[in-house]
Amino acid sequence: MSWKNIWEFVWVTIGVIFTALGLDMFLIPNKIAAGGVSGIATIIHYVTGSPVGLTMLALNVPLFIMGIYRLGLTFGFRSLYGTLSLSVVVDFFEVFVPVPTREPLLAALFGGVLVGLGLGLVFKYRGTTGGTDLAAAVLRTYTGVNIGQLLFLVDATVVLAAGLVFNSWELALYALITIFVTAWMIDLVQEGINYTKAFYIFSDRTEEIALKVLHDLGRGATALKARGLFTGSDREVILTVVNRSEVGRLKEMVFQVDPDAFIIIADIREVLGEGFKEAVVSSQETGVRRRKT
Q1: How are the residues of the chain apportioned to helix, strand and coil, as percentages rounded to the nearest 5?
Q2: Are 101 and 141 contained in the same domain?
Q3: Count of Cβ atoms closer than 10 Å to residue 275 Cβ
Q4: Do residues 69 and 92 both lie within one domain?
């Protein structure tokens, strides 16, 4: 096993720990069954008294069997590792971790943040925790329905069941909040929070603007060929990416050159390459790390 693989398993483990903390500190004690296998296990826990982690493991066993039968071993060792470790850590932490709040809204929000942070790390480092992701992939082989739609259907069914079992539609609504917060946090972890801005600059003086971008701002720029559908004339559009701190300066530069310029500014989650975050790729065969060019 290479150092890269070891590093990935370390981060998957950290992600599992955050996920377990979110479940044990906030969601399970407050009866918030926010979809998925953990939500089903939470419902079963309050009905039968069985440990949540052990129940999650029991629910995942048939999913793995179906996954092997329908999908082969494509989900690999990381799925098995993530599923087993999450089940063990959830039951282990239950004895030690405190329950900071019994306020359902706070529990829904902070539980969603911790679970989303944990799952985001697991997914970012190519792991999974089994559960409804695998169930949806298996169901897709039978139905052909989009996986995202299946996941939503499964989560909605779990939330509805929780509302019925706990006789509280408020808890079901809190679970929906957790689902949205978790999804948002997963995206945040995987895509990053360091927003950059993409500028699309439409002008009749693109060469002068490009020189300003290249030399005064020190950023790269690309000229895109475009055609105005109203005028029918060909023109160039400048595309450049800058940090948030450079937005005001770039707008000022553009309008100094061409007061009639038209600018579109878009949020960019992540930029890899020169002048921004370095991209590193790994060779599966040699384990050599090299810069992506």
Answers
A1: 60, 15, 25
A2: yes
A3: 11
A4: yes
